[in-house]
Amino acid sequence: MNDSPVHANGVAKHFGRLRALDDCSFSLPPGSVTGLVGPNGAGKSTLLSLIAGLARPSRGSVSVHGTPVRGRMHPDVSLLTQKRPLYEQFTVREMMRAGAAMNDRWSSSRAFEVLDLLAGVDKDAQVRTLSAGARTQVAIAFALGRLPKVLLLDEPLSDLDPLARDETLRIVMTDVAERGTTVLLSSHLLTDLGDVCDHLLLLDEGRVQVSGDIDDILAAHQVVVGPADVSLETDGVVVDSSHTARQTTALVRGGSVPSGWESTHPDLEGLVMGYLRASRTRRSVRQ
Ligand SMILES: Nc1ncnc2c1ncn2[C@@H]1O[C@H](COP(=O)(O)OP(=O)(O)OP(=O)(O)O)[C@@H](O)[C@H]1O
């Protein structure tokens, strides 16, 4: 049994004939912050809900700290989704009391500590009156009040202004530093991911394309630039390439530097954009 904070072994999820996830295997190291990226419909939300135990895989298995996840919310996991399920009629304070009633493991002091760190949340306001950003902040306090060992965040930052985004990421990172929480963060905002993530999990069409330590992944890729009229001979895998009248630029995984070509390592944004472009090209060729 693998006792990683999160371990997926050959996980598939089918909705009728649609394969939302297919043969996904990976492990998240303890205390890591992993960016979960991929184009729309890649399977990111589906994967997070399987890890949280809100759905069961069609094939394969997921375990959290060595315990199989079996289709019910795992006590060590908090999942914050875009939908932010909160009780509309409750005040923020009542919402936190509900957290104590609903969870075997709950720390009111931690939930209120998080709320106090976040500017602009009135604890006596009804949830239904809060702005989208304030609701997200309440949901984060609720998620951290469960003292999770694994925190799953599904596009949590999209409603927040830049300052609130910064504060929220800081709180998550403090949780990682102080409690060793393992975080899996799905986001399309690559700069946010670059600021906080040390690992990457890149999905496309339900399959894991890249998984591991970001520094290792970047070191294993090169961006090569050469004249447009010279074909690229490489022993690596060309992930993506683009051409102008004068030059060809390509993202290559593995292999040695092709002779006569300039080579640098990509940054995180360049790497992810290369995979996203390649995905779009594959889809448009099929259509
Ligand atoms: N309950 C469901 N029933 C049927 N199809 C579903 C269901 N949930 C997800 N899907 C499909 O599974 C695929 C993966 O969806 P998912 O929401 O996991 O992708 P995503 O990577 O999170 O996308 P986005 O970046 O747009 O949020 C999509 O084709 C989606 O339409």
From TrEMBL:
UniProt xrefs under Pfam families: ABC_tran
Molecular-function annotations in GO: ATP binding; ATP hydrolysis activity
InterPro entries in UniProt: AAA+_ATPase (IPR003593), ABC_transporter-like_ATP-bd (IPR003439), P-loop_NTPase (IPR027417)
ABC transporter domain ranges (all copies): 6-230
Keywords for this protein: ATP-binding, Nucleotide-binding, Transport
Family membership noted in the UniProt record: Belongs to the ABC transporter superfamily.
UniProt-listed PANTHER family: ABC TRANSPORTER, ATP-BINDING PROTEIN
Protein name: ABC transporter domain-containing protein
Native source species: Lentzea aerocolonigenes (Lechevalieria aerocolonigenes)
Lineage: Bacteria, Bacillati, Actinomycetota, Actinomycetes, Pseudonocardiales
